[in-house]
Amino acid sequence: MTAYRFTDEKIDMPKSGKPYLYVVLDGALRLHTPSGIMDYMAGQYSVSRIDTPLYGTIVSFSEKQDFLAVALDMSLDEIVSSALDLDNDITEKIMKEMVPEQEQVLADVSVIRAVYRLFAAMKQPLGSEYIRRNIMREIIYYVLCGSCGKQLLRSVANIRQIDEIYAANSWIKENFRSPFTVEQLAEQQKMSVSLFHQKFRSAVGMGPLQCQKRLRLTEARRLMLEEKRNVTEAALEVGYESVSQFIRDYRKMFGAAPGEDMLNFKRKLKE
């Protein structure tokens, strides 16, 4: 478990090769992901995904003008063991999104309570590792039964492929503004182009260049929303050479041109 305290609006998200739980303790966090804008208030958590961004934005600080969070790495063995302990009917309900909303809410609350107990247990030297293992199993069980259960179960299926291409995915996240080829990435990982592309698509759900495009567009959206860049500035800053191509790609991904998207977002804030 790693505790974080931030006083700046832009923060680094954990860089981990494992799935991790990110729990907001005080303040509020916003993540700009290709899947959409995700806000997390105090007492809420997220499970890392392959498209979890490198940075987050603090949209609300605590009364002490800081932001507090903890991150918990979850090993493959811990996740698989907990998933195998689930009854088949529970697993089916999770994958088919049939768990009643009220039960998910209760499970999510139990996740937060268990995290606080884990935090307290780790301060006790006697038997802390034994207690940690048991509470972690409890946390993973509640996560599986909560709002992020299906996402975590899916990560179990893909985690071995994710381990193999994680370095490449991390490299893309850090270098998405610059041009690159799939051949370069495959060479970095000492794989053939076809094998690398197959493993990457299996783990991420898309090819490396499509992943780069989604990261560029997501960051451009954040730049326009939070740093007030205009369309041309945002397009050039994320690596586009053609503003018209940027607008076409943006409309295809977000369903509206950049200017219209910004207006829609401002309307939502006023509602």
Word description of this protein:
The chain is α+β, with helices and mostly antiparallel strands and about 270 residues long. The chain has 4 domains: about 1-75, Jelly Rolls (Sandwich), CATH 2.60.120.10; about 75-150, no CATH class; about 160-210, Arc Repressor Mutant, subunit A, CATH 1.10.10; about 210-270, Orthogonal Bundle (Arc Repressor Mutant, subunit A). Helix content is about 55%, strand content about 15%. It has 11 helices and 8 strands. It has helices at about 75-85, 90-95, 100-120, 130-145, 150-175, 180-190, 195-205, 210-225, 230-235, 245-255, 260-270, and strands spanning about 1-5, 10, 20-25, 30-35, 35-40, 45, 55-60, 65-75. It is globular and about 60 Å long. The mean pLDDT is about 85.
β-strand number: 8
Side-by-side strand order of the widest sheet: 1-8-3-6
Most strands sheet: 4 strands, antiparallel
Structural class: alpha+beta
User: Whole-number radius of gyration?
Assistant: 20 Å
The average pLDDT score comes to: 84
Low-confidence stretches: none
> How many separate structural domains?
4
| SS summary, helix count | 11
Report how far the terminal alpha carbons are from each other: 38 Å
**Judging from the principal axes of the Cα atoms, what is the shape?**
globular
* Helical content (DSSP H or I, runs of 4+): 55-70%
How do the SSEs run, as a string of H and E? EEEEEEEEHHHHHHHHHHH
Key words describing this protein structure:
single chain, 271 residues, alpha+beta, Jelly Rolls, Arc Repressor Mutant, subunit A, four-stranded antiparallel beta sheet, 8 strands, 57% helix, globular
